[in-house]
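Weekly sync, protein design subgroup
Attendees: M.S., D.O., the rotation student, P.L. (late)

Item 1: inverse folding check
M.S. brought a backbone from last month's batch and wanted to see whether the design step gives back something sensible before we order anything. D.O. pointed out we never logged the input encoding, so this time it goes straight into the notes. Structure tokens as presented (772 positions):
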């Protein structure tokens, strides 16, 4: 049936099909389906199919074989004169319904954070064509740490990436979008089945034997670095010991409020509480109750890496009550607010206080008539990522992935407000008032962000800016004074300094560090994520004579991304799950003789292969199904099912070409020891005192019984067998190190009493640049 969208509705073109070529439908895993058909059109035909026409191939029982749209004008061939008129053959190509999504530009939107794969696919689809597809058939599947929508990619490419990351498949059918795990439907392909076709089966053995797997991933946050400087009253630039790790895609949101964009915000409030006019978000009223009138960001905020949340330039029209810029653990309620700004009525104005852990802290800042206020939250976690990546294999399918665990860390939170007086331009760049500067221990990894939680508010907001800042925290201690956190960024945003690519810390002239003012810069160094995992049992089993049994391979993992060396280990485990002999092949049969009595088979379905004569017994996944309709009236369909066994890595990984050289011998970890090999990093180690000849260090935690803290001059040669750059091994939490130069570097790792000792995965690097 073809609807040329000309008002005549769907017309039957069955009698026009050139059956010598048949009707072909090709279904590929996580890709739009394709239909190819040749039509013989003359004077009696319904007409030439139009570009964009709706095409449906449907059985008499109402089940769909294909639904989609013509993607180009049919190609035409003149066949001659017959039956009193010219005859033409038109070759028609149609793609399934999701081709509509291919024709839309992807809207700029924040990265998906800690969403299930199904939720990510639904969000992606709704943002492109809201309300068009029936999404009830989309399952949840595994939670993904993050997924960035690249506007240069097509919808189908992004949907395929989501499916790969979750070991799942999508397909569409007559306006419905379906998403679920591979092998959600599995059919028996058995040699003993009376409908089995021996000559239709082709099988090929695949050798995937690997027992020494090296996985290379992305640039990762490596050493925990702290650089220490001291001001002299005139120096503005301080050279850092390492280049800080910085994440890509750094702008999460830059909202100017031209509209209340549903791809950015979820409104939970009575009508007219939130509106947009004159380039501003207008907040009017509230229910008088906490959490009943909220403007929530559509994505969660990951409390990982330095993050800047500028909630907006807010003008209060009268006394208000509510919360601005709240980060919530669970429901948007004051009691569950991890950090935010509590607004309360104070006469004709309002009072602003820091809200931390559900309780107000610190002093209050009163608003002034005619002034407006810029609210900002700065997050400085000790870890960059708060959730491990998830990986799959045949033994760890969707719903039972490897990885995905939470990563614990502390988070320093700074809450500040800038009071701007329109009559005094100098207040635009004046230092902000810090309402809170403290550490939240064992902070959650992800929070709900609500720009406004209005009990009763009358105010306007001109912008909201969420940004992944350079992952560095700058703290300063005036001589004899208290330590404060200073903002790094642009001068116009109120920052005192900036980080350059040199790398160096550069202070603006207005904020030159005073003489003897101590400066501490904390950040993560950068390195290449990589890991080597071995299966010692497999190596031993294949050790014969001069053959040591090692079967090694290096993979450069692109998707799901391996963001850290710990992720590389997990990816290696998933790859080793399916190391060994595998199968690939194809099976040709008729629609009435499909395996297991199936009525139809799609890419992503499973085949339980049991063919003793070929020595084949495995679970296979159909990655392509090609259907040829050889008789429309009799609904005779030939199927060619192309499959790989369920352990094929193409079902779970996308690999790329090597982008870096492995410049060192990686320490191998046995499959039984992954996750047990490393101690916790010394994330809280710090310098507590500096003299011209010594540096005193607090490791942050007491060494384990029988272990200690190993300190070296360079980040190499860790272990008890090499002392070439060793400063010492210490069994106490605090210790004193020698200092020989103005700029002195120290590298620390903890170790225990295991044989051989276990060490921290990443070093803590302490750099002192003080005059002697």
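Designed sequence read out in the meeting:
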């Amino acid at each position: 049936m073809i609807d040329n969208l000309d008002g005549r509705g769907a017309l039957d073109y069955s009698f026009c099909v050139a059956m010598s070529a048949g009707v072909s439908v090709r279904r590929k895993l996580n890709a739009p389906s394709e239909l190819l058909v040749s039509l013989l059109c003359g004077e009696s035909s319904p007409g030439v199919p139009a570009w964009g026409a709706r095409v449906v191939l449907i059985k008499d029982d109402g089940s769909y074989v294909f639904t989609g749209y013509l993607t180009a004008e049919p190609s035409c061939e003149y066949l001659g004169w017959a039956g009193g008129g010219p005859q033409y053959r038109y070759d028609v190509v149609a793609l399934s319904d999701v081709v509509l999504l291919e024709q839309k530009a992807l809207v700029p939107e924040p990265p998906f954070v800690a969403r299930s794969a199904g939720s990510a696919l639904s969000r992606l689809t709704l943002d492109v064509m809201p309300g068009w597809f029936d999404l009830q058939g989309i399952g949840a599947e595994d939670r993904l740490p993050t997924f960035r929508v690249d506007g240069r990619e097509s919808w189908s490419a992004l949907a395929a990436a989501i499916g790969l990351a979750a070991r799942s498949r999508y397909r569409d059918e007559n306006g419905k979008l379906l998403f679920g795990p591979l092998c959600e439907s599995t059919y028996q392909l058995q040699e003993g089945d009376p409908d089995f076709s021996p000559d239709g089966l082709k099988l090929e053995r695949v050798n995937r034997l690997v027992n020494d797997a090296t996985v290379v991933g992305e640039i990762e946050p490596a050493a925990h670095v702290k650089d220490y400087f001291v001001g002299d009253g005139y120096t503005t630039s301080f050279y850092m010991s390492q280049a800080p790790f910085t994440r890509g895609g750094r702008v999460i949101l830059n909202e100017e409020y031209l509209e209340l964009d549903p791809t950015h915000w979820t409104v939970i409030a009575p009508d007219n509480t939130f509106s947009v006019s004159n380039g501003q978000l207008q907040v009017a009223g509230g229910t008088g109750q906490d959490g009943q009138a909220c403007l929530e960001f559509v994505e969660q905020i990951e409390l990982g890496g330095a993050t800047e949340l500028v909630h907006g330039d807010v003008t209060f029209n009268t006394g208000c009550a509510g919360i601005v810029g709240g980060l919530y653990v669970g429901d948007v309620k004051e009691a569950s607010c991890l950090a935010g700004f509590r607004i309360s009525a104070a006469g004709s104005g309002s009072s602003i206080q820091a809200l931390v852990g559900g309780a107000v802290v610190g002093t209050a800042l009163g608003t002034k008539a005619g002034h407006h206020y810029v609210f900002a939250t700065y997050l400085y976690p000790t870890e960059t990522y708060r959730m491990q990546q998830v990986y799959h294999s045949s033994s760890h399918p969707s719903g039972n992935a490897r990885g995905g665990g939470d990563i614990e860390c502390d988070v320093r939170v700074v809450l500040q407000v800038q009071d701007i007086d329109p009559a005094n331009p100098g207040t635009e760049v004046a230092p902000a008032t810090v309402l809170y500067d403290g550490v939240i221990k064992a902070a959650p990894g992800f929070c709900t962000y609500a720009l406004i939680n209005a009990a009763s508010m009358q105010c306007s907001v001109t912008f909201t800016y969420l940004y992944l800042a350079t992952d560095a925290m700058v703290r300063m201690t005036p001589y004899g004074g208290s330590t404060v956190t200073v903002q790094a960024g642009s001068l116009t945003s109120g920052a005192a300094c900036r980080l350059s690519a040199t790398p160096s810390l550069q202070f603006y002239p207005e904020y030159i560090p005073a003489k003897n003012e101590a400066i501490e810069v904390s950040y993560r160094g950068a390195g290449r994520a990589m890991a080597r995992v071995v299966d010692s049992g497999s190596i031993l089993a294949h050790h014969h004579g001069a053959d040591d049994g090692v079967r090694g391979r290096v993979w450069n993992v692109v998707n799901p991304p391996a963001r850290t060396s710990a992720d590389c280990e997990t990816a290696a485990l998933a790859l080793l799950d399916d190391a060994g002999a595998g199968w690939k092949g194809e099976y040709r049969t008729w629609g009435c003789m499909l395996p297991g009595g199936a009525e139809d088979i799609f890419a992503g379905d499973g085949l339980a292969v049991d063919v003793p004569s070929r020595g084949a017994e495995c679970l296979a996944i159909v990655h392509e199904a090609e259907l040829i309709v050889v008789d429309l009236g009799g609904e005779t369909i030939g199927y060619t099912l192309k499959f790989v066994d369920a352990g094929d890595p193409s079902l779970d990984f996308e690999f790329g070409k090597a982008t870096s050289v492995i410049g060192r011998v990686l320490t191998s970890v046995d499959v039984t020891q992954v996750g047990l090999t490393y101690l916790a990093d010394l994330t809280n180690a710090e310098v507590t005192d500096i003299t011209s000849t010594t540096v005193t260090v607090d490791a942050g935690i007491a060494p384990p019984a029988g272990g200690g803290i190993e300190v070296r001059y360079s980040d190499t040669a860790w272990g008890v067998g090499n002392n070439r750059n060793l400063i010492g091994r210490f069994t106490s939490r605090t210790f004193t190190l020698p200092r020989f130069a103005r700029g002195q570097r120290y590298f620390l790792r903890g170790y225990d009493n295991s044989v051989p000792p276990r060490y921290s995965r990443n070093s803590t690097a302490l750099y002192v640049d003080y005059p002697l």
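Discussion: The CA atoms of residues 154 and 300 lie 24 Å apart. The first strand starts at residue 2 and ends at 3.
Action: P.L. to compare against the previous round before Friday.
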